[in-house]
Amino acid sequence: SQTIHQWPATLVQPVGSPLSLECTVEGTSNPNLYWYRQAAGRGLQLLFYSVGIGQISSEVPQNLSASRPQDRQFILSSKKLLLSDSGFYLCAWSETGTRETQYFGPGTRLLVL
Amino acid sequence: GQQLNQSPQSMFIQEGEDVSMNCTSSSIFNTWLWYKQEPGEGPVLLIALYKAGELTSNGRLTAQFGITRKDSFLNISASIPSDVGIYFCAGRYNMLTFGGGTRLMVKP
């Protein structure tokens, strides 16, 4: 069966510091991968998605970037965090095809102080 | 872009009551998904709907893909305290679009 992991689970970082969040998927090959951000009590905002290694699409301009160095690894980064980057970051995966249901990881809670 | 209107935004009900929530859009979708999210966790898929008119159950949960392909509803029968959480609908045409969520609170 497929599993998706995210780490760290929680992160407190000062403004201006760098960021690296990691997401890995097991039990599937060539998944589509997604990064979402969720503000407290709000819906999900798609940040990036990837259909393959090295292929990244950005949905909204922002202070963040994403990379996919391996088939089942998706990384969310920032060179300098802003206060507004605080939130709950969710990684998701889906299989390519007509029935593209997304499955979410456990999330990383980021607090920028 | 496509937008989903999910209602109600929140519900506070008594244990044992039935719950109904829905999502509507001005755009058509090929897939409707319903997720539940508990505090501090990622959303968990409850029900996936792939065909207009489809009615699918998962235990006490029932969801339907609207015949117009522009709406979907989720019903929960005989609610229990562990049903507490935020329920999200999501519709997919090309990309997945999420509703704003329905926060469900159940009073024992």
Can you describe this structure?
The complex is a heterodimer of chains A (113) and B (108). The termini of chain A are far apart. Chain A is mainly β and 113 residues long. Chain A is built from no helices and 11 strands. Chain B contains no helices and 11 strands. In chain B, the strands form 2 sheets. In chain B, strands 2, 4, 5, 9, 10 and 11 form a 6-stranded mixed β-sheet that branches. In chain B, strands 1-3-8-7-6 form a 5-stranded antiparallel β-sheet, with no helix packed on it. The interface between A and B is medium-sized, with 20 and 22 residues.
Mind telling me the C-alpha Rg of chain A? 13 Å
Give the percentage of residues in beta strands of chain A.
over 45%
First and last CA, distance of chain A? 38 Å
Radius of gyration of chain B: 13 Å
Morphology call of chain A:
globular
Number of strands of chain A: 11
Largest sheet of chain B: 6 strands, mixed
**Overall morphology of chain B:** globular
Proportion of beta-strand residues of chain B: over 45%
Q: What is the helical fraction of chain A, as a range of percent?
A: under 10%
| Separation, N- and C-terminal Cα atoms of chain B | 40 Å
Identify the biggest protein-protein contact and residues per side.
A-B, 20 and 22 residues
Major β-sheet profile of chain A: 7 strands, mixed
- Oligomerization category of the chains in this entry: heterodimer
Secondary-structure-based class of chain A equals mainly beta
Q: Can you write the helix and strand succession of chain A as a string?
A: EEEEEEEEEEE
Count of DSSP strands of chain B: 11
Q: What average pLDDT do the residues of chain B reach?
A: 94
Q: What is the helix tally of chain B?
A: 0
Number of helices of chain A: 0
Reconstruct the topology from this structure.
The complex is a heterodimer of chains A (about 110) and B (about 110).
Chain A: E1 3-7, E2 10-13, E3 19-26, E4 32-38, E5 44-52, E6 55-58, E7 65-70, E8 73-78, E9 87-94, E10 103-104, E11 108-112
Parallel strand pairs in A: 2-11
Antiparallel strand pairs in A: 1-3, 3-8, 4-5, 4-9, 5-6, 7-8, 9-10, 9-11
Chain B: E1 5-7, E2 10-14, E3 19-24, E4 31-37, E5 44-49, E6 55-58, E7 61-65, E8 71-76, E9 85-92, E10 96-98, E11 102-107
Parallel strand pairs in B: 2-11
Antiparallel strand pairs in B: 1-3, 3-8, 4-5, 4-9, 6-7, 7-8, 9-10, 9-11
